[in-house]
Amino acid sequence: MDRAAWTRKWLSLAGILAILIALLPAVSPGAGAQPLTSTYTLILQNGLNGYAGCTDTYIDRWNSTSNFENSNLKVQYTSSGDTLSTLIRFDLSPLPAGAHITSAVLSLNSTYRQDDTLLTIAVYRLKREWDAGQATWELAAAGQPWTVPGANGAGTDRAISAFTQVVASATGWMDIPLTALVSKWHSGEYPNYGILLRAEGTGGPAGKSLYSYVDSSSGASAFRPKLTITYELDTTSTPTSTRTATPSATWTGTPASPTPSPTRTPTRTPTRTPTTAPPAPIATIVLQNGLDGYTGTEDTFIDSFAPNANFGSAAQIELRAKHEKNLLIRFDLSPLSTMPPGSTILEAVLGLWCLNQSNLSPIEVNSYRLLRPWSESQATWNQARAGDPWGEPGAFQFGVDRAPETSVTGVIDRTDMWLYQDWTFMVPYWHQHPSLNYGAVISGTGWAHVTYWFAGSENATPAIRPRLVITYSVPTWTPTPTSPGTATPTRTPTRTPTYTPTRTSTAAATPTPTPTGTRTATPSPTATAAPDAYEPDNVCAGARDFVLNGPAESHNFHVPSDVDWVRFSIEAGYLYRIETHHLATNADTLVYLYAANCSSLLAMDDNGGTGLGSLVEYLAPETGVRYVEVAPASPARTGPYSSYQLSITRQLPGTTATPTATLPPAGWLPLLRK
Fold it and tell me: Do residues 169 and 316 share a domain?
């Protein structure tokens, strides 16, 4: 090719390049921002990342003046219509302003159901304030009645039409889509009073159905209600330099076929999402004489009107108000040995089938853990067994015959239905201490003299005999801790608040790496942890007295099911600080403060202390007793290196008390408090 031909070719290419540059949009100073959309996911669940904005309770048509905060949530439909409804609300303040919500899903975990399998649940937007600690079937809050009991005032208590409907069909997780509703709450179009879950029908022969769901205060934190929100935010990409294309003269000729210029494509910088283990699956064991060969139920009733008579072989067991006839019942829990190691009991519910009543008056029912052995064939009002009298007739002396803690009060006022008693606070204790499983005494109170008859374990109809339904989580993975002597590099994800586009040539080939041999690590033996010195203390009844302002106690979570309970005295007007500190490398605590009944939650905290430690401050309104439960934040935070120290200090408001630390176990370096 001669010199003139080369010149014409390069001039042709230069002309084409000039045309392309001229076609590029001019970028003026300060006006070159290009909008980019970034997608995020936010999970709102009490205890997760310090969130505590979910409030919930259920309301009961048959216990219309009772509040059930801190109890499992329930939704039920019967021949009377909606009999149990759930109220739930999430604080949406963690959502950033300007977020465009593309998905919002409420997830509830059911641990128990009864009667018909299918239950139609309508989801209504609530239109008024309510208080989870005060709401009842009659009241939205103290002194503020619902327009129609049960939050059923259409247009006043709740929206006229349901936002959506779902059909519950099995235990486990149930998802409820709430995208449009959450969007309107976030934008301010609707005030956020939460939702009402109202039963509106069943799809089975019984014509009634009940589902029970884990509530926001449950110790099984992974199964608490959660709201998963996916949203987009518009971010801005600003060019680093300003270029204004200057048109140039165009040379006219016969250009050679041009090669297309590479296309510049903005590339988003990915954000690493930490991987966590999925929640463990849930399983259920039902104990009932005659079911799957089970014969471990013993029951009888004791009668103040026949104080020396035994009714151990009766097919019906009787309960009378004013503690005049009490029930004794015990279940052999040896079938729980089939649970995999590390399983956690989430719920235990006793069911008694009501056969008859002497009049229409209601009766309030409570269960108390028995502290001494008794004989089904010998127990009477006066004696636990032959020659062994009760401390108080009727098995009613605190600390001798029965424990002071009681189940959540149940009420029954009709027949042909199950009476339920929450035994969750007793069954784990018996499972941990089989030799102390003496069962429970069930007593009735009320203003009227009324007797209720229930089917006993010897009843001719097996399906209505007393039954104990135990729900537990099954571990699916075992964390293997890193030896404290070996440093393992950990990649820390870096949050990128604004995506910065990088220009990437799509024409450039990406070299393919040549695979190299991978070294396979030799597995190390899995370390185990021994129980701490305060075990057994897994239940409220096993709580030990804590020395206020004394040395810190050193505890650990030696197995996934381990929690630690302590008890301390309070005096009105003093400030109490409950704190976990000096956490080992695998420890992460949750602290719960309970009233004297061990069931009313007064306060809780996740990471309010130093690092992953917890801190609860409580100003005592009265003199009495309080209980503290310390639990692991997740099953992964148990086993080796899960130790922590617990301090409880008493002080006058405005003063400071410093907890006294106990030397931590060897093998880790504590963080020093300022």
Answer: no
